[in-house]
């Protein structure tokens, strides 16, 4: 907190004039003002005495005019040294809080996570799902090809022309393929559930 002024040249000039002209000035105030010639700081206590003197004697110089080029003197705040035990304790608390924050941030992180799309368990489920689809498609193709082959070979006893045999085999394979697709769709619908 400020308790004094840094005096400027205007105050020095006016105070010198006051010392020379004022005879009703107390000796204590004269000594304080004479001491200011060597110093650059004036305490508020001396300023109050000077203000009282100017008011009592009716001088045309006002206090704010004296301190026009002066400034408040703010003493430098000296911080006491910190207690080493307190510093050590604060460091422990900071480390503990940082550790808790880290745990809070990483609580939902799985160390087995492979990438942004999931972990190894999800990858295993996806592989099994793809494997089931591949087996189903392969089963569908084998069934349709087998139906075509059986119909083609079996139709040689009914038809003598190759065109008729191929046409009969395509019709039989199409019927078997459609039946297989119907069963496949019903199965997948049952697995996924009704929407």
TrEMBL record:
<dbReference type="GO" id="GO:0005789">
    <property type="term" value="C:endoplasmic reticulum membrane"/>
</dbReference>
<keyword id="KW-0472">Membrane</keyword>
<keyword id="KW-0256">Endoplasmic reticulum</keyword>
<feature type="transmembrane region" description="Helical">
    <location>
        <begin position="166"/>
        <end position="185"/>
    </location>
</feature>
<keyword id="KW-1133">Transmembrane helix</keyword>
<keyword id="KW-0812">Transmembrane</keyword>
<dbReference type="Pfam" id="PF11712">
    <property type="entry name" value="Vma12"/>
</dbReference>
<dbReference type="GO" id="GO:0070072">
    <property type="term" value="P:vacuolar proton-transporting V-type ATPase complex assembly"/>
</dbReference>
<feature type="coiled-coil region">
    <location>
        <begin position="12"/>
        <end position="39"/>
    </location>
</feature>
<feature type="transmembrane region" description="Helical">
    <location>
        <begin position="132"/>
        <end position="154"/>
    </location>
</feature>
<protein>
    <recommendedName>
        <fullName>Transmembrane protein 199</fullName>
    </recommendedName>
</protein>
<keyword id="KW-0175">Coiled coil</keyword>
<dbReference type="InterPro" id="IPR021013">
    <property type="entry name" value="ATPase_Vma12"/>
</dbReference>
